[in-house]
Amino acid sequence: MKTKILTALIAGLLMVGCNDKSTDNKTQQPAANSESKTSEDISQQLALKARKGNIWLDVFDTNLSQAAQDLRGRNSMPSSLYLLDNRVRDFLKSVSDKNGQIDVNYVKKNPLKLSIVNNPSAENLDEYKQLITELLELKPELPELDAAGKAVSDKYIELGLAYGSIAKYYFNHEYKLDDFAKLPELLNNLATIYNQYVEAENVASLAYRKLYEEIHAFQKVDIKNKGLMLNYNCIEIMDLSEDVVALINKSFTENNQFKNLDKSAIEQKIEQIQSITNELIANKGKTKLIKEQGLNDLYYDRFVDRLPQLINQMKIVLKNLQANNVKIEVESLNGQLENAIDGYNETIN
User: Fold this and answer.
1) Which of 3, 181, 293, 346 qualifies as a cystine partner to 231, CB 3.0-4.6 A?
2) pTM (whole model) above 0.85
3) 142-158 pLDDT tens trace
């Protein structure tokens, strides 16, 4: 899961700054008004980009009900579309040998492996396609992200069709009629499409990250300049946390060893994260302040409560750098970060 871009807040940030100015200062220079208008225009443009970018992110995460809610104002999408990619991944793993190769003979001996349930129907996939069509038509155009998103969604539909073909092959007893003759083709086709889907998703992830960084840099400066420090600290703590986990992941090798890990740099970041966490915790329950800062008061406390677990897991990894089970601790750290990101995404939008 990736951190979302602020949407509802940034469009109004400049307004907040302007409304807070003293009424005594009525004779402003034309140049200042022009700069204010330009900044407001930029905020509005970024808000529209952020909204569309976040909907694409929900599509990539297969959080399609949320995507439909943000796009249409209603969130009804078939449950069979949710996490289809993960179900296909797990299915392929279940019919493969220890080297990751499709094991047709194994499946022939265990045909129950083909009893796929809750696969999306053709109608479900049409609903998904319509959602993507509407998203592509949403303004503004985001050429790189739109193209990458369409490529992902096209492969997602192919994935659903190929997955469904295997289900029909089993439940219609076709495998009994042709003595599994078509099975290798069906399984290999699904594996090929899944690999193409993963490649398309990686490209889309980079496109989203590019948009995120473009908008994030402006937002962060703007929020700090307007004195919305509680909001700023929420952003800062996630930036620092993602930096720490990225440094750990980057240096962690397949042999359960750490290569070129700058432990002192990570410890400094953890100290910063701890300090910010203390400030955020001190503001728990202050509903009025949280709302004034442009944050969701319904989720703020829950988000903040997850941060100590994340910090402790960072420290546990550093403590166990030479331990045999450090891989488990690194995986747990990544899980804790995902959990924190989930809370952050709910809090900022």
Assistant:
1) 293
2) no
3) 999 999 999 999 999 99
